[in-house]
């Protein structure tokens, strides 16, 4: 769905306490609303509020950007800020496997993907 | 646009700490990328846009970019929940190859790439092939046989693209779910064999 074509980016206030640069968050990283996020009430920022409601079931950063109609970079900032506030958690496949085998190069993961596709 | 509530019901059934992986669907303009993704996705393919400024600047605080003029680039993607703890995303690359910056986001950590080829417009896939080849991303060539038209045989295409025998070639119909599944399974198996080779 199209993004309002104003060519302008609304300023978002960045929160301190992010654990990594936002550009490092994978587009397929799964975001879910934490208990604190569920109890947060209505957030004054409509995009943040939508993310908190959308992610009761896990969603990727890409899905969030699409459903909230923000560019990917904005969705990353919003997700990172919500995470820093403890309102969402981000299961980033790259961050999670830091130091060990990357999931996409892990034979047991690849086997499960192949078998899952065959079962479709 | 659908309401948030109806969108909510279409979140993945996977658990909160599910692993998500992705496969890239690349190729030239109008070659069938979105059709391919839609044939196996459990959701209608979604569209995400990125701003040129996302990549061309390194800020992570958007308030540092007041009212900047931007160009948007779109990619679309689908989702397959393979298991409660495993979700596969399929990301179609932007049709216009000049937006390479977006490819880095799409390909980072990907299992591999399906390069869709329309044999009538072979040169359209050159950019995609070069990109994945140079970065060592496992890939295969899927000839999208529009209406069964095939002006070249698979071997002729392999030659034209100067690809070795290790790169799988398939003929596919992007509209056909079984055909798309076969392509994806072949790609995953190819990625597995590349991992196994590295270990020997
Ligand atoms: N006959 C035939 N038509 C196809 C096939 N795959 C796609 N098409 C048609 O080709 C057109 C383009 O397909 P898309 O899936 O939109 O192609 P795309 O690569 O996503 O296009 P861009 O995103 O614009 O680059 C559509 O009208 C499809 O219905 C195929 O295998 N056979
Ligand atoms: Mg498309």
Task: Please provide a written account of the structure.
- Chain A: This is DUF742 domain-containing protein.
- Chain A: It comes from Phytoactinopolyspora halotolerans.
- The complex is a heterodimer of chains A (about 120) and B (about 200).
- By secondary structure, chain A is mostly helical.
- Chain A is built from 6 helices and 3 strands.
- A 3-stranded antiparallel β-sheet of chain A has the order 2-1-3.
- The relative contact order of chain A is 0.20.
- Residues about 1-15 of chain A have low confidence and may be disordered.
- Chain B has a single domain (about 15-200), classed as 3-Layer(aba) Sandwich (Rossmann fold).
- Classes of the chains: A mainly alpha (about 120), B alpha/beta (about 200).
- The interface between A and B is large, with 63 and 64 residues.
- Guanosine-5'-triphosphate binds next to helix 2 of chain B.
- Guanosine-5'-triphosphate binds near residues 33 and 95 of chain B.
